[in-house]
Protein backbone atom coordinates (compact mmCIF):
# COMPACT_ATOMS: atom_id res chain seq x y z
CA UNK A 1 0.00 0.00 0.00
CA UNK A 2 2.82 2.38 0.83
CA UNK A 3 4.32 1.74 -2.61
CA UNK A 4 1.08 2.89 -4.25
CA UNK A 5 1.29 6.14 -2.27
CA UNK A 6 4.81 6.70 -3.56
CA UNK A 7 3.76 5.93 -7.14
CA UNK A 8 0.73 8.22 -6.96
CA UNK A 9 2.78 11.08 -5.52
CA UNK A 10 5.40 10.64 -8.24
CA UNK A 11 2.72 10.70 -10.94
CA UNK A 12 1.23 13.84 -9.36
CA UNK A 13 4.62 15.53 -9.49
CA UNK A 14 5.00 14.48 -13.12
CA UNK A 15 1.55 15.89 -13.96
CA UNK A 16 2.40 19.20 -12.28
CA UNK A 17 5.65 19.41 -14.24
CA UNK A 18 3.74 18.66 -17.46
CA UNK A 19 1.27 21.44 -16.66
CA UNK A 20 4.16 23.87 -16.26
CA UNK A 21 5.69 22.65 -19.50
CA UNK A 22 2.42 23.21 -21.38
CA UNK A 23 2.24 26.79 -20.09
CA UNK A 24 3.16 29.20 -22.90
CA UNK A 25 6.07 31.48 -22.17
CA UNK A 26 4.90 35.06 -21.79
CA UNK A 27 7.82 36.75 -20.14
CA UNK A 28 9.81 39.65 -21.48
CA UNK A 29 10.84 39.15 -25.10
CA UNK A 30 14.46 38.43 -25.85
CA UNK A 31 16.44 41.38 -27.19
CA UNK A 32 16.38 41.45 -30.96
CA UNK A 33 13.23 39.32 -31.31
CA UNK A 34 9.91 40.95 -32.01
CA UNK A 35 7.16 40.49 -29.42
CA UNK A 36 4.24 38.28 -30.44
CA UNK A 37 1.10 40.07 -31.45
CA UNK A 38 -2.18 39.60 -29.58
CA UNK A 39 -3.63 37.07 -32.04
CA UNK A 40 -0.65 34.71 -31.67
CA UNK A 41 -0.81 35.04 -27.90
CA UNK A 42 -4.53 34.21 -27.79
CA UNK A 43 -4.03 31.19 -30.08
CA UNK A 44 -1.18 29.90 -27.92
CA UNK A 45 -3.33 30.25 -24.80
CA UNK A 46 -6.30 28.56 -26.43
CA UNK A 47 -4.12 25.59 -27.27
CA UNK A 48 -2.31 25.39 -23.90
CA UNK A 49 -5.23 25.84 -21.48
CA UNK A 50 -6.89 22.44 -22.19
CA UNK A 51 -3.51 20.66 -21.84
CA UNK A 52 -2.74 22.46 -18.59
CA UNK A 53 -6.24 21.81 -17.23
CA UNK A 54 -5.95 18.10 -18.04
CA UNK A 55 -2.55 17.80 -16.34
CA UNK A 56 -3.78 19.68 -13.26
CA UNK A 57 -6.89 17.48 -13.05
CA UNK A 58 -4.70 14.36 -13.29
CA UNK A 59 -2.39 15.72 -10.56
CA UNK A 60 -5.39 16.42 -8.30
CA UNK A 61 -6.66 12.86 -8.87
CA UNK A 62 -3.23 11.38 -8.05
CA UNK A 63 -3.00 13.48 -4.87
CA UNK A 64 -6.47 12.26 -3.88
CA UNK A 65 -5.21 8.69 -4.31
CA UNK A 66 -2.21 9.59 -2.13
CA UNK A 67 -4.48 10.84 0.63
CA UNK A 68 -6.59 7.68 0.47
CA UNK A 69 -3.49 5.48 0.50
CA UNK A 70 -2.02 7.37 3.47
CA UNK A 71 -5.28 6.90 5.34
CA UNK A 72 -5.22 3.14 4.64
CA UNK A 73 -1.57 2.86 5.71
CA UNK A 74 -2.18 4.78 8.95
CA UNK A 75 -5.26 2.67 9.73
CA UNK A 76 -3.33 -0.54 9.08
CA UNK A 77 -0.45 0.53 11.31
CA UNK A 78 -2.84 1.48 14.11
CA UNK A 79 -4.69 -1.83 13.79
CA UNK A 80 -1.45 -3.83 13.78
CA UNK A 81 -0.11 -2.01 16.84
CA UNK A 82 -3.34 -2.62 18.74
CA UNK A 83 -3.27 -6.32 17.84
CA UNK A 84 0.38 -6.61 18.87
CA UNK A 85 -0.37 -4.95 22.21
CA UNK A 86 -3.18 -7.42 22.88
CA UNK A 87 -1.03 -10.44 22.01
CA UNK A 88 2.05 -9.31 23.93
CA UNK A 89 2.78 -11.31 27.03
CA UNK A 90 4.65 -9.78 29.94
CA UNK A 91 8.34 -10.48 29.58
CA UNK A 92 9.97 -12.15 32.57
CA UNK A 93 13.68 -12.59 32.86
CA UNK A 94 14.93 -15.96 33.87
CA UNK A 95 18.39 -16.76 35.03
CA UNK A 96 20.33 -19.69 33.78
CA UNK A 97 21.66 -22.50 35.93
CA UNK A 98 24.34 -21.75 38.49
CA UNK A 99 27.96 -21.93 37.31
CA UNK A 100 30.02 -24.94 38.28
CA UNK A 101 33.52 -24.72 39.79
CA UNK A 102 35.05 -25.60 36.41
CA UNK A 103 33.33 -22.67 34.71
CA UNK A 104 35.05 -19.99 36.83
CA UNK A 105 38.13 -18.23 35.39
CA UNK A 106 40.32 -18.40 38.48
CA UNK A 107 41.37 -21.85 39.62
CA UNK A 108 40.42 -22.53 43.21
CA UNK A 109 37.52 -20.04 43.26
CA UNK A 110 34.31 -21.50 44.57
CA UNK A 111 30.89 -21.10 42.97
CA UNK A 112 28.44 -19.03 45.00
CA UNK A 113 25.84 -20.98 46.87
CA UNK A 114 23.00 -19.01 45.26
CA UNK A 115 22.99 -18.01 41.58
CA UNK A 116 23.20 -14.29 40.95
CA UNK A 117 20.18 -12.58 39.42
CA UNK A 118 20.72 -10.43 36.35
CA UNK A 119 18.58 -7.71 37.88
CA UNK A 120 20.35 -7.61 41.28
CA UNK A 121 23.91 -6.25 41.07
CA UNK A 122 26.61 -7.74 43.25
CA UNK A 123 29.16 -5.90 45.35
CA UNK A 124 31.28 -3.27 43.64
CA UNK A 125 34.67 -4.05 42.18
CA UNK A 126 36.44 -2.24 45.04
CA UNK A 127 34.80 -4.46 47.66
CA UNK A 128 35.35 -7.69 45.74
CA UNK A 129 38.40 -9.74 46.78
CA UNK A 130 41.31 -9.48 44.37
CA UNK A 131 42.78 -12.56 42.70
CA UNK A 132 46.08 -13.73 44.23
CA UNK A 133 48.14 -12.48 41.26
CA UNK A 134 46.84 -8.91 41.72
CA UNK A 135 47.42 -9.03 45.47
CA UNK A 136 51.06 -10.14 44.95
CA UNK A 137 51.69 -7.37 42.40
CA UNK A 138 50.59 -4.66 44.85
CA UNK A 139 52.96 -5.75 47.63
TrEMBL record:
Residues 84-139 are annotated as: Disordered. It comes from the Bacteria. Residues 111-128 have a biased composition (Low complexity). This is Uncharacterized protein.
Amino acid sequence: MLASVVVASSLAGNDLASALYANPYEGAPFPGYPADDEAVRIARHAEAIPHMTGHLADAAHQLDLCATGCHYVATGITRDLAAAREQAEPVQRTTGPALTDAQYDEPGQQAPTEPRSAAAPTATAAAAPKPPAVQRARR
